[in-house]
Amino acid sequence: MRKLVLFMHVSLDGFVAGLNGEMEWIKIDDEMFDYVGERTNISDMALYGRVTYQMMDAYWPTAADQPNASKHDIEHSAWYSKVEKIVVSRSMKGKQIPKTKIISDDVANEVARLKQTGSKEILVFGSPSTGHVLTQANLIDEFWLFVNPMILGEGIPLFKGLKRNELKLLKTHVFKSGVVCLHYQNA
């Protein structure tokens, strides 16, 4: 059975983006890319909401081909090209995209079914609305929360409409940038 693992940047006050989706406050660097790369390399499926998918798909397929491509660009581009992608989107319903499955209806049950296939992990990158649906359905097995040293005051919350749920802290990692990765398992 596959694990569903959520990767999400979050402000200290619990927001994943500003009110209009602003994310310029998120700190990302090579140290973090190397840390996360260890996990992505063992996974064979990525799940995105439509907005995050379109942002990722506009960059990663050709990132390694750019003259100034970094080590991370080359590695993640290769991973992105080989993994199966799942996109949660009503507006993309019926689209045919290679190595990509569109889920438009009954998201929780479709993702629960996907978890029953294979033995590797499904990584959820960003995608706060999709994260809300999956968290509310108690489908997320692990949370990798990258807490940025920033207070936004308002924005899109990490958690919304949830019941009480206990998590088990598996690991913490402090990056030189001041970002702290909190790795939790759903208890």
CATH class: Alpha Beta
Order of helices and strands: EEHEHHEEHEHEEEE
Look at the structure and give the mean pLDDT: 92
Helix content: 25-40%
Please give the number of β-strands.
Answer: 10
Determine the oligomeric state from the structure. single chain
Molecular shape: globular
By DSSP (H or I, 4+ residues per run), the number of helices equals: 5
Question: In the CATH hierarchy, what is the architecture at level 2?
Answer: 3-Layer(aba) Sandwich
CATH superfamily: Dihydrofolate Reductase, subunit A
The CATH topology turns out to be Dihydrofolate Reductase, subunit A
- Which strand order does the major sheet show? 5-4-3-6-1-7-10-9
Taken together, the total number of domains comes to 1
Structural class: alpha/beta
Alpha carbon gap, first and last residue: 17 Å
Beta content: 25-35%
Rg over alpha carbons? 16 Å
Low-confidence stretches: none
Task: Give a quick account of the main beta sheet: strands, pairing sense, barrel closure.
Answer: 8 strands, mixed
Molecular structure report:
With 187 residues, the chain is of the alpha/beta class. It has a single domain, classed as Dihydrofolate Reductase, subunit A (3-Layer(aba) Sandwich). Helix content is 29%, strand content 29%. The chain has helices at 30-40, 50-63, 71-82, 107-115, 128-136; strands spanning 3-11, 15-17, 45-49, 84-88, 100-103, 121-125, 142-148, 156-157, 167-174, 180-186. The strands form two sheets. It has an eight-stranded mixed β-sheet, sandwiched between helices. The protein is globular and about 40 Å long.
